[in-house]
Amino acid sequence: MKKKIAVFTTGWCSEILSQFLTGMQESLKDDYVDIFLFLCYPVYADTPEVKHGELNIFSLPNLNDFDGAVLFGSGLSFQDKIDELVKKCKYAGIPLIMQGAEHADAYYIGSDNYVATRDMCRHLSEKHDVHDIVFIAGTEESLDSELRLKAVRDHLIECGRLDDLKEVFYAKWDNAAVMQYINDYCKSDRYLPDAFICANDGLAMAACITLSENGYHVPDDVIVTGFDYIDDSQIFDPAIASVDQCFTAMGYACGQLWHKLSLNIPCERASIIPCEFVPGESCGCGDLRNGDEMRRLVGRDNFSKRSMTHYFNRKLNLIDSTVLSCLTYQEFKESLHKLLTENHDYEGDSFHVLLDPNFGLSIYDNKIELRKDGYSTYMEVIYSTEDGKPYEDVQFRSREMVPGYTGDGPNHLYVLLPLHESDSAYGYIVFRDCMDKVENHFLQTYQSRMGLVFDKFRHAISLDLLNKRLLELMRVDPLTNVNNRTAFEDKEKKLQSMINDDRNCEFGIAIFDVNDLKLINDNNGHDAGDAYLVRSCHLICNIFKHSPVYRVGGDEFVAVLMGEDYVNRNKLIKQLARKMDPYTDKIPLPPDYISIACGISVFDPENDMAVQDVMKRADEAMYENKAKIKGQK
């Protein structure tokens, strides 16, 4: 039976992550095993709610269904999540391997950051006479960053010049924070240090760019070094002097360790992979690398990458326009499914979109809340195809994670990413065998854009429904529940438009005035008066069943007669008259007393130019009827 390994990390360190996974897959090629990568993209600047929504993907798997787990610590600095995953693995009784950070309940795969950083410091001192140093760190919680800082300090202590470490700036792995820091540093009265030693290559490249913008040249004016030796830093100008952590070798060692553990072979708790300091142009050693050749190769690849990026952006725009044009949740599901069925070249033949069933329900009822922690037992399948075979059921058990998964065939890498808004879980998406998309951040762009457009759709439909409900409330008389004066004014405009379009249109206006309302209010109270109005309104509606009725004043109602009621208007007015009680203005009135004066007029295409012409005649007829009723007293 095929085995499964869960890998947990964030995707911002995409290049070293892809190297690690490549080494891991290579070492496991003779094992019958699939890798499930639970990937997200939180940043330190995010709100706690957004971070929670991203990291919630780690709650999806039931680790009892797995044969091992890996935490890629170089991309995962959220200690609470690390502790939580360690506990889950221990409870499930599966081996846990941690890269980049040690834990008492896990096996450890790491690189010799310390020795390589000491080698770098020695090189800077001996080859470039570096003294004053500013260290740009990641976070205080990052063991890797702190170990590199310790190596710098220990080197300076060994040289008897610890004071040469002028400052430590914690950038929280944020390039923008580095740029702001360098800008402020250059504008201050302080002299530049001999070197900015950065905790990774991204921070080093951000430092180089900002120094250049402030008129300084690297390495002539100041040396900059990085860490990780990623491809971007190798082709950067200047090529960054860096430390190669050998992540591919680390991943290979991780796979070998899991293989031994799966066979119950005793293993050492820790495995250390040697690192190598690689001088570069940013420290003045450009002649030690063939950076120009690498840049030419990258330039050659740029054409195909531009084409792919252009296609990718078109696909995302198509998803946006398709989703945002939908007016209902059902249309949303059908349209997105049709789009992905007809065009999934980018996503491939194994791709899945699953939403929480409350996602759709919450659109129509804002009292229904989405989950904050984990995922519902069953997910709604919006689109799902595995090996080109569509998943036919509308719901899917989330514990199984991938619809249509059988575990047959060659080894695969599945990547599962969250869909959410803030800390509300919308669902998740699944890609397969997409190492290139992991490396170039396409997955992050796809995930964030899809989550954003789902959020826009949900809020747009919810807001539209809310507006419609508010409009309905604005158009309804709260006492009688028939249309109010605002609604009648809208109806009047539509009737006028009908007259303008077709002089041969047929409609009538019936105006009703409820007699003796003031008498009842004065003698029996307003509650009795309200009950009298409701009785009268019900009678009007029961007689003129096919006509919209409006309350346009305190005791005045209007019905617009069309169709069957228009044809039978004379019969209906007689039927209304038969339901009236004999008019009286003597107290007490009879029980369930009703007296209503009514006047009807029809549109005359020869003489009427406006609805008001019809209204005026109906009003006059109503007053004539009122006088007749009172005269019969």
From the alpha carbons, calculate the radius of gyration and give it in angstroms.
Answer: 38 Å
Per CATH, which architecture of the domain at 111-245 and 273-293? 3-Layer(aba) Sandwich
Query: Spans of 5+ residues with little confidence (pLDDT < 50)?
Result: none
Helix content percent band? 40-55%
Q: In one word, what is the shape?
A: elongated
| CATH homology superfamily name of the domain at 111-245 and 273-293 | Response regulator
* Quaternary structure classification: single chain
CATH C-level class of the domain at 111-245 and 273-293 is Alpha Beta
CATH topology (level 3) name of the domain at 111-245 and 273-293: Rossmann fold
Counting DSSP E segments of at least 2 residues, the number of strands comes to 22
Number of helices: 20
Beta-strand proportion: 15-25%
Distance between the termini: 96 Å
How would you sum up the major sheet?
12 strands, mixed
Name the structural class: alpha/beta
Could you report the average pLDDT, rounded to the nearest whole number?
A: 91
